[in-house]
Amino acid sequence: MTLFLEQVLNGLQFGVLLFLLSAGLTLVFGIMGLVNLAHGSLYMLGAYFAVTFVAWTESFLLGSIAALLSTVIVGILLERSVVRGLYDRPHLEQVLGTFGLILFFNELARLAFGPAGLSLSPPPWLAGQINVLGIPYPSYRLVVLVAGILAAAAMYVMIARTRAGMLLRAAAANRGMAEALGVNVRLLFLAVFALGAALSGLAGILAAPLLTVRVGMGEEVLLLAFVVVVIGGIGSIRGAFVAAVLIGLIDTVGRAYLPGLLRAAFAGPVADAVGPALASMLIYVALAVVLVLRPRGLFPTAARTDVAA
Amino acid sequence: MNARALVGLVVLIAIVAAVILNQLRDDGEGVRIGFVTTLTGGSAAIGQDMRDAFELALDHMGRTMAGRKVTVLYEDDAQNPDIGLQKTERLVQRDGVQFVTGYIWSNVLLASYRAGIAGGAIVISANAGPSELAGAQCTPNFFSTSWQNDQTPMAMAEVLNKRNLSNVYVLAPNYAAGRNMVAGFKRSFRGTIVAEEYTQWPDHLDFAAELAKIRAANPSAVWFFFPGNYGTQFFKQYAQAGLLAQIPLYSTFSIDTLNLPQIGEMVVGSQLTQHWGADLDVPANRRFVDDFRKKHGRTPSFYAAQAYDSAVLIKSAVEATRGNLQDRDALRTALERANFESVRGAFRFGRNHFPVQSFYVWEVVRGADGAYALKLGDRVFTDHADPYAGDCRMAAAP
Question: What distance in Å separates the CA atoms of residue A307 and residue B378, rounded to the nearest whole number?
């Protein structure tokens, strides 16, 4: 039972990390209609910045804040220089353009930081374990979980309760009407992109002590983030949250229990061969099921004007 | 002369030049080698290390073999079997290479080697050693300068046997090499295997689920194989879960000179097995390691050593045939003799063209300069042949 609880905690922690990544993606896709493949690059940059700045400032907190700000600045520069020109282009061109950005950022990171992966240790005060319901759970993972939930709550308050959030919702529901009513769409787009960069960068910073910081780490999670966006319903933050937690749980619990279950049901070698493969496929099975039952995702946004544009 | 005629003239010159260049190539003047490895993504450091070592070997031989100029074409497989196959096909078909070497990953090699051989080249793995190629699918025009996947974990299991570890939890990625490594470990290990866990490959993000299961199983030791950055990630998360102090951790091909700077602190004192190390006292190795350090300011990895050997092996065959690159049979016969100074010391090829060689223990130590290094220990196996060689019925060369 405690093992199951621990796996659920692991799943939740993975889920909130996925949410931070997909929140920006779904906003940018939903509001600006932009397929931003380079979103994963901002995640990678956040992680690289975290390693660099934590080493410089010798403080995990200060370094993380500096890394977050730097990622946002890169995001703003990126929007103003390249991404802005892609808004009115067809999706295929957006994919090509942002794919080019992935190659650019990967090569840049390779030149700046070298091909070998970098490593960031969690701060000493988070390196141990905390007792959660009788499980010695890594404190750092718990911090990731809490930070993710806080970020999700902050997003919710901002979108549901503030004026900026209202504009955002308006633009997401009907961009043309919002523009006609005098919303400065250029500025709004810049803000949304910067917010997306901040969330993606935060995910990268939080993931850095868990993973190896390396070139190409962005693409590995990008696919999962897209799965979350599609399951949640394009443009829906609430959908992204529910879908991210769902995917996190399905993936972790599936990996933990499916091979064992198969082994109990079938003879050894068959189960050994099928188990891991099936466990890694589970999230895509979930995606397929959701697409069949609810083609527009779990939480479809109210009105879409130019999905095909 | 009008513009049209000028354009026509330029096109004509270009065509003539292309034909002449092509002719030069077909004359077989130079030695052409394709090198397929991973140069982008998370494992790029491994590919870069191999490439640096191969280049160093070429420097050492003055970039010629038997008086012929050597051209090497490096191709990136992106750690993907499909891309590896594409690149191999292009190397033999378009670029007309006589040798294809490199290959870090067993699944990439398995997808690619047929295309290389069918295209008229000799394929030499500088790392991957899948059981298929050592046993039932062994083939005359394939060689390895590394090892068969099972061998190194077999040697590692002997280390665990000596420590009388009874219940061991085993983890590896779910692909050809991962399954071979586990098979090798199980073949030699005398204790009980508590559980055998295979993880998604290559984009496994997080080991949290696996670590929780290890904690619940409470084995007397854990043995795993996660190469390169994946190993780094596993060590880090294992330490963060607080397991390092509770359950001893053993590994194969997961600690190397590339990731030691990042994980040294966690793994100092750990033992591992290998066929080669930078401190192996062999003249060819001293030259290789010293010059590599001088040129690149770092210690080469075992991947690099194998790539270096593959260049020197090719040279030995080209020289034995006096540069006659058209005669693949003669080249193969020369390769079979392994008549070159390997950085691991003398070895011979088994009937399946995999090395029959010694395996040793290395221990992670902290040097006087504060840097972590691998220190040579006892020999585990002498003249060790892989367990699949008996299944190899080498057919006559096509």
Answer: 66
CA-closest candidate to residue B42, choices B225, B262, B229: B229
Q: pTM (2 decimals)?
A: 0.87
Q: Please give the distance of CA B228 from its chain centroid, rounded to a whole number.
A: 12
Residues 6+ away with beta carbon under 8 Å from B53: B288, B292, B300, B303, B304, B305, B307, B308, B311
* Closest alpha carbon to B74 in B28, B124, B37: B37
Show the CA angle centred on residue B43, arms to residues B121 and A282, nearest 5°: 105
3-state secondary structure of A85: helix
Distance CA B190, CA B390 (A): 23
State which amino acid sits at residue B341: E
Using a CB-CB distance cutoff of 8 angstroms, which residues of chain A are in contact with residue B170?
A: none
| A256–B240 C-beta distance less than 8 A | no
Domain that includes residue A60, residue range = 2-293
Q: Decide: residue B298, CB within 10 A, 0-12 exposed, 13-18 middle, 19+ buried.
A: middle
Given strand B142-144, what is the order of strands in its sheet?
B64-65, B68-76, B31-37, B99-102, B122-125, B142-144
Buried b / exposed e along A6-25 (16+ C-beta atoms within 10 A): bbbbbbbbbbbbbbbbbbbb
A142 has a chain B CB within 8 A of its CB: no
* Residue A122 contacts B, CB cutoff 8 Å: yes
Residue of A nearest to B44 (CA): A115
What domains sit in chain B, N to C, each tagged with a CATH number? 25-147+278-351 (3.40.50.2300), 151-274 (3.40.50.2300)
- Among A133-137, B108-112, B277-281, B334-338, the minimum mean pLDDT is found in A133-137
> Partners of B376 in the beta sheet?
B362
Domain annotation covers residue A268: yes
Cis omega (within 30 of 0) on the bond before B219?
no
Give the pLDDT confidence score for residue B375 in this predicted structure.
96
What is the predicted pLDDT for the residue at A309?
Answer: 33
- Looking at the domain assignment, is residue A298 inside a domain? no
Which residues in chain A have Cβ-Cβ distances shorter than 8 Å to B240? 122, 127, 138, 140-141, 209-210
Distances (CA, A) of A149 to A18, A72, A145, B37, B208: 11, 20, 6, 41, 19
pLDDT digits (tens, 9 = 90+) for B263-296: 999 999 999 999 999 999 999 999 999 999 999 9
Q: What is the mean pLDDT of residues B28-53?
A: 91
d(CA A5, CA A181): 50
**B378: helix, strand or coil:** strand
Runs of H (alpha helix) within B259-375: 260-267, 283-296, 302-320, 328-336
Domain with residue A210: its CATH number is 1.10.3470
CA distances from B343 to B235, B286, B287, B290, B362 (A): 29, 8, 9, 12, 16
Phi, psi of B132 (to 5 degrees): -55, -45
Residue B120: in which H helix or E strand, if any? Answer: none
Q: Looking at the complex, does the CB of residue A4 fall below 8 Å from at least one CB of chain B?
A: no
Asked whether residue A217 is domain-assigned, the answer is: yes
**Residue linked to tokens 């902290």:** B366
What is the residue whose two structure tokens read 């909130």?
A: A16
- At residue B28, does pLDDT exceed 60? no
- Tell me if A34 sits within 8 A of A194, measured CB to CB: no
With respect to residue A279, please indicate whether it lies within any of the assigned structural domains. yes
Q: How many domains does chain A have?
A: 1
Average pLDDT score, chain B: 91
Q: Which residue from B178, B155, B188 is spatially nearest to B383, judged by alpha carbons? A: B155
Quote the pLDDT of residue A127.
86
